[in-house]
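Batch manifest, entry 17 of 40.
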Amino acid sequence: MTTAHPLTTARHRVPASRSTVALKAATAISGLIMVLFLLVHMYGDLKVFSGRAAFDDYARYLRTTGEPFLPYSGALWIARVVLLASVLVHIYAAVTLWRRARRATAGRGGWRYQSTRGRGGVQRTYASFTMRWGGVTVALFVIYHLLQLTTNTIHPGGASPSPFDRTVNGFRIWWVVLSYAIALTALGFHLRHGFWSAFATLGANTSVRRRLHLNVAATAVSLVITIGFLVVPFSVLFGWVG
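Output type: structure tokens
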């Protein structure tokens, strides 16, 4: 019987900060930070129903919050840095966990817990099955969204210094609304599984009753965010706003 050399064992030892448990916790916490951001962002978007003045005033308020203790847009940039850090941590942890799972199964993936109702495994819901590609779709959508409505780099329907006008000009075009609908549907599926998985990772899935509550909460949050964001583009497209 032989034993592994101590140096060999130490060489393959993973630091606690990069352990699977730590990475899953990082994925959960960073995901919940992004969910909180989405809820606040959705609230701001719905101000479009109050008209141009209210919507543009809200956009200015975000940039003047914290003055004079913070510089112009200081609070907004703090929020952006926290959000960007959360996104990077989320992507790094998710990709690292996925690569470890692929290595552990020689690239074939793994069978979930089986049941007579689902030979592929009871964890293979559509939302969980599409988590990776849903995340890629959402990432590409966020880039396009920033270029259109934040930096005014891409401006279908016409450029404008007014956030309200940029929103209305873009969403008057059917293919812009269609692209948003596809991306937000992918976001909804991603949120449905991600929200449940985050709380399960953090230890909230402790009983059948708690699991039911988590499922209901995950479905409610995903529907509220998806529908809340879709209301604005479809309202503009159908002429209810602007």
